[in-house]
Amino acid sequence: MRAAVLCLRNRYSITVNQAKGSIETVKNIASGVEVPFNITWGYYISSEGQSTATKLPNGTVERTGQSSGAYIFRPYEQFTHPPSTMQPRITVSTGPLVSEISKIVILSRFACCPPR
């Protein structure tokens, strides 16, 4: 599929690439300013504590003795993992008062996560 351009009633032009499942740009029609747009989803693996090693993006390992808990979030790695290998879906809902574009992340054959 090719990228489709949607003009919403709020004076913004939004470029949606349905083949990739992404919103690519948002343009203010009045000013002509256009900016790239990207939303990514991911999750972290939490640290278990007790002299846990943390792998940094550059490949080095940092050792710490504090685990994740109710008030402290300590990831094991300093980067996110994708929630799914399945392609996200873009849905568009248009009504008399509101137009909404949603990116639905498909987590498996049986579950999806539509942001609200």
Walk me through the structure.
The protein is 0% helix and 39% strand. The chain has a domain at 44-79. It contains no helices and nine strands.
SSE layout:
Blueprint (H helix, E strand, L loop, with lengths): L2 E5 L4 E6 L4 E7 L5 E3 L15 E4 L5 E4 L24 E6 L4 E8 L5 E2 L3
Antiparallel strand pairs: 1-2, 2-3, 3-4, 5-6, 7-8, 8-9
Mean pLDDT: 75
How would you spell out the order of helices and strands?
A: EEEEEEEEE
Distance between the termini: 26 Å
Total number of β-strand segments? 9
Order of strands across the widest beta sheet? 1-2-3-4
Low-confidence stretches: none
Q: What does the main sheet amount to?
A: 4 strands, antiparallel
Beta percentage is 35-45%
Kindly name the structural category: mainly beta
- Helical content class: under 10%
The dominant shape is elongated
Note the total helix count: 0
Question: Over all CA atoms, what is the radius of gyration?
Answer: 19 Å
Structural key phrases:
116 residues, mainly beta, 4-stranded antiparallel β-sheet, 0% helix, 39% strand, elongated
Question: What is the compact description of this entry?
Answer:
The protein is an all-beta fold. It has no helices and nine strands.
